[in-house]
């Protein structure tokens, strides 16, 4: 059974990934910031939950992981909708720490485990990494930074660890409420996290990076409408 | 015109600082190296650690600012997994987070003139990739994205620009280059030439600035064949780095 790590596994796309890989028979390790007692009852019983803040010390996570990892999906992230002038310094610091610095340092920490099994590392970005976004300039920049790391790291680790980037489009998760996005009508079109998780798993199995752009979102919105 | 330049004591920042002093602007030269700042004549020196909590306030105190050039940056080259964790952190903090923090704080405090320009020094790596400098490439892609979004978010009259310099003959570049490449580094574009091109492009209102024909050719090649270009860089730089350069 493959060993799989999913960060941000208690909610949203990460949670859907936990379900997907548990169902597929993997040994799943999931991280989240909430306490184990609060999250564990809702997770599949076989899932190993690690309560940890990825922006802090990574030794607790490492101690809880097996010696080899076949797949690590670095999915944890946070957004905030606000024009640049209205971001406080703490909000910027938190987004850079969680969306950019944490996945980089975690990738570095996981390297020996992934290399040992010639495994796959998947960064979860955002379609916002491209283009201009006046109301989430900081979030988009943190994801663009991650994309910049990916494009060079995949070549550095070629032959040792497969490095992939998946940029999900708008997905129906709690992130948008946490980020302060109003309940606009377009949110009805956001993709179901289970669908996105299945797409990520397929891409990871094929070793292909993907950008789930507008075409993807609309196709699945239409398919959802027909169900 | 009131101009703030970060990383003003060395390299491209120094060249930009000297060029704006020469054209008669009021210049605030910001750097953590206060000794080197002391050698610059004709500017107000502001010795600062840009990653500190009060750096934006110290800069805002000199407002209203017409042009701020975020040039301060560090790198760290070598295999990603071998570069110390603290170095990765420091690169993201200084190159990426600090300019974003300072920009947002200056906007919040109204420390900018109505027609101000925010200029960010990115890197050609946005077009070409940069195996051997993963966190540096990350920091610069983050800046390029931020500049793009900022340009859409700024009040009418203000502008954001990103500069994508190619390889230059600076101490910074020499420090992070593979061994025995001193000759290659010396043959590159001089920071003074780059500064002239950058200031002319900023004056012309450009928001995407790739200074020099050589850098533009590399950027084009990177856009047309990104993987091929990144592989060439891997061979030319990454494969030649024997130890991490910090």
Provide mean pLDDT of chain A, rounded: 93
Helices of chain B, by number, come to 11
Question: Can you tell me the overall shape of chain A?
Answer: globular
Radius of gyration of chain A: 17 Å
The share of residues in helices of chain B is 40-55%
In total, how many beta strands of chain B? 7
By DSSP, the count of extended strands of chain A is 7
Succession of helices and strands of chain B: EHEHEHEHEHHEHHHEHH
| Structural class based on helices, strands and sheet pairing of chain A | alpha/beta
Instruction: Provide the gyration radius of chain B in Å.
Output: 17 Å
Q: Structural class from helices and strands of chain B?
A: alpha/beta
Per the principal axes of the C-alpha atoms, what is the gross shape of chain B? Answer: globular
Largest sheet of chain A: 7 strands, parallel
User: What profile does the largest beta sheet of chain B have?
Assistant: 7 strands, parallel
Task: List low-confidence stretches of chain B.
Answer: none
> Could you list the spans of chain A in which at least 5 consecutive residues all have pLDDT below 50?
none
First and last CA, distance of chain A: 34 Å
Q: State the end-to-end distance of chain B.
A: 36 Å
Entry summary:
The complex is a heterodimer of chains A (227) and B (246). Chain A has 227 residues and is of the alpha/beta class.
Describe the structure.
The complex is a heterodimer of chains A (227) and B (246). By secondary structure, chain A is an alpha/beta fold. Helices cover 45% and strands 14% of the residues of chain A. Chain A has a seven-stranded parallel sheet with strand order 3-2-1-4-5-6-7, sandwiched between helices. In chain A, helix 1 (12-23) packs across helix 7 (193-206) and helix 4 (89-116) runs parallel beside helix 5 (137-156). The longest helix of chain A has 28 residues, at 89-116. Chain A is globular. With 246 residues, chain B is α/β, with parallel strands linked by helices. Chain B is 48% helix and 15% strand. Chain B has helices spanning 11-22, 34-37, 55-60, 85-109, 125-128, 134-153, 171-176, 182-186, 191-203, 213-224, 226-236, and strands at 2-6, 26-31, 44-47, 65-70, 112-121, 159-163, 208-209. Chain B has a seven-stranded parallel sheet with strand order 3-2-1-4-5-6-7, sandwiched between helices. In chain B, helix 1 (11-22) packs across helix 9, helix 4 (85-109) runs parallel beside helix 6 and helix 10 crosses helix 11. Chain B starts with a strand and ends in a 10-residue tail after the last helix. The A-B interface holds A 83-87, 89, 92-93, 96, 100-101, 104-105, 107-108, 111, 129, 131-138, 140-149, 151-153, 155-157 and B 53, 56, 79-81, 85, 88-89, 92, 96-97, 100-101, 103-105, 107-108, 125-126, 129-135, 137-146, 148-153, 226, 230-231, 234, 238.
């Amino acid at each position: 059974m493959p060993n799989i790590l999913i960060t941000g596994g208690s909610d949203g796309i990460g949670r859907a990934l936990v379900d997907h890989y548990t169902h597929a028979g993997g040994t799943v390790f999931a991280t989240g910031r909430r306490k184990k007692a609060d999250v564990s009852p809702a997770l599949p019983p076989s899932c190993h939950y690690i309560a940890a803040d990825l922006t802090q010390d990574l030794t607790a996570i490492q101690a809880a992981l097996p010696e080899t990892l076949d797949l690590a999906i670095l999915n944890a992230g946070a957004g905030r909708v606000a024009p640049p002038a209205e971001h406080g310094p703490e909000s910027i610091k938190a987004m850079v720490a969680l969306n950019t610095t944490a996945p980089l340092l975690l990738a570095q920490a996981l390297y020996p485990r992934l290399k040992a099994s010639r495994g796959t590392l998947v960064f979860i970005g955002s379609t916002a990494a491209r283009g201009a976004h006046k109301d989430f300039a900081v979030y988009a920049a943190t994801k663009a930074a991650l994309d910049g790391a990916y494009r060079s790291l995949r070549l550095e680790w070629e032959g040792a660890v497969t490095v992939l980037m998946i940029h999900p489009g708008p997905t129906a998760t709690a992130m948008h409420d946490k980020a302060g996005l109003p309940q606009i009508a377009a949110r009805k079109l956001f993709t179901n996290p289970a669908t996105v998780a299945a797409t990520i798993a397929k891409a990871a199995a094929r070793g292909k990076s993907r950008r789930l752009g507008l075409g993807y979102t609309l196709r699945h919105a239409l398919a959802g409408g027909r169900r | 015109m009131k101009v703030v330049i970060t990383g003003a004591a060395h390299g491209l920042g120094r060249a930009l600082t000297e060029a704006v002093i020469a054209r008669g602007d009021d210049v605030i030269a910001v750097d953590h190296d206060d000794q080197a700042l002391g050698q610059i004549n004709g500017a107000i020196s502001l010795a600062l650690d840009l990653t500190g909590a009060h750096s934006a306030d110290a800069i805002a105190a000199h407002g209203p600012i017409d042009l701020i050039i975020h040039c301060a940056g560090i790198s760290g080259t070598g295999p990603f997994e071998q570069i110390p964790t603290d170095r990765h952190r420091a690169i993201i903090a200084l190159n990426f987070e600090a300019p974003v923090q300072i920009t947002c704080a200056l906007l919040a405090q109204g420390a900018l003139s109505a027609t101000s320009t925010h200029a960010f020094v990115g890197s050609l790596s946005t077009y070409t990739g940069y195996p051997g400098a993963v966190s540096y490439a990350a920091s610069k892609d983050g800046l390029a994205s931020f500049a793009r979004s900022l340009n859409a978010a700024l009040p009418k009259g203000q502008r954001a620009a990103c500069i994508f310099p190619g390889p230059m003959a600076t101490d910074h570049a020499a420090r992070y280059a593979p061994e025995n490449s001193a000759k290659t580094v010396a043959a590159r574009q001089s920071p003074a030439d780059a500064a002239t091109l950058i200031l002319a492009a900023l004056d012309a209102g450009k928001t995407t600035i790739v200074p020099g024909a050589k850098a533009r050719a590399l950027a084009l090649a990177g856009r047309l064949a990104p993987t091929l270009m990144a592989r060439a860089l891997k061979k030319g730089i990454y494969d030649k780095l024997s130890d991490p350069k910090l």
